Amino acid sequence: MANLNRRHFLAATSGLVASALLPGAGLARAPQIGTTIPGWYRFPIGDIEATIISDGLLNLGSANDQFPAASPDTIASILKDEFLPVSPMMLEQNCLVLNIGERVVLLDSGMGRDAMFGDQSGRLLGNLSAAGIEPGQVDDIVLTHAHIDHCSGLVAADGTLNFPNAQLHMSQADFDFWTDEAKLSGEGSQPAFVKAARHNLLPYRDRLTFVTDKAEVLPGITAISTPGHTVGHTSYLISSGNQSFLNVGDVVHHYALLFENPGWAFAYDTDPNQAAETRIKLFDMAAAEQLPLIGYHFPFPGLGHIRREGQGFEYVPIPVRHG
Ligand SMILES: [Zn+2]
């Protein structure tokens, strides 16, 4: 009797499942939409209204190529624990807009039209507009550094400024290094990076201010010199009321690999040893002060804290809020 009932039940349910999956069976009339979450996220830092604008994803190929000094077995083991593939290693690009009251400030600007790291980037302008911010409203652009994935959203392919009313703020060391004509010839990715920096930075030359370590760039935004990834890489401490918030830029790229192993060299570091020293120093500070922060390349929207974990550190994402 029990077997008979079970057989009847299976027959009945398999019929239901089959009819639900059949096209035209009448249970799924609405078309699938195919889009994901909006490419922006808004949150407060004291009185500042902050909006993270995604420029989309970068495809960096195999993680083994990006961390050449690390053991492939260790990379594979960490990424397996995170349910991530070794290849492709995908990194987000989280640009940050700060409405500080008197000014609208954009930190970093993505890949623009450059497809060096795939076709899922270059979405800054579209996502800005979706977030209700027009390029003409941006008063200031602050760069962490002059790499191709941070400065390429500034100027359109035809040379037109994407942000016609904006002043540019960045370190002189990075401006001089990455716009240096002599570096247009050479090996590896450097010539392409220099070409992109020259295309995007030189048109802003007459509206450029250099930032200096520990000095206020704009009200509530203080530069922290964090060299190594590039010669003039700069992080920014943002303060409003009694709240502080850290924009680390590219002091760290991968949230799983480089927190556990902050000493690892990253392929695009200009000075990998200095980058590691800087990373550990900034992680120490952020962990000790329990600073909320944003990582440009962390999983969207890129907000979290750093805590000490064993010999290294750990990234703890801040849950997104709605309403
Ligand atoms: Zn970057």
Automatic annotation (TrEMBL):
Domain Metallo-beta-lactamase: 92-297
Record protein name field: MBL fold metallo-hydrolase
Family label: Belongs to the metallo-beta-lactamase superfamily.
InterPro entries assigned to the protein according to its UniProt record, in alphabetical order: MBL_superfamily_lactonases, Metallo-B-lactamas, RibonucZ/Hydroxyglut_hydro, TAT_signal
Source organism, top-level taxon: Bacteria
Keywords, in A-Z order: Hydrolase, Metal-binding, Zinc
Keyword Mitochondrion attached: no
SUPFAM superfamilies listed in its UniProt record: Metallo-hydrolase/oxidoreductase (SSF56281)
Pfam families: Lactamase_B
GO MF terms, alphabetically ordered: hydrolase activity; metal ion binding
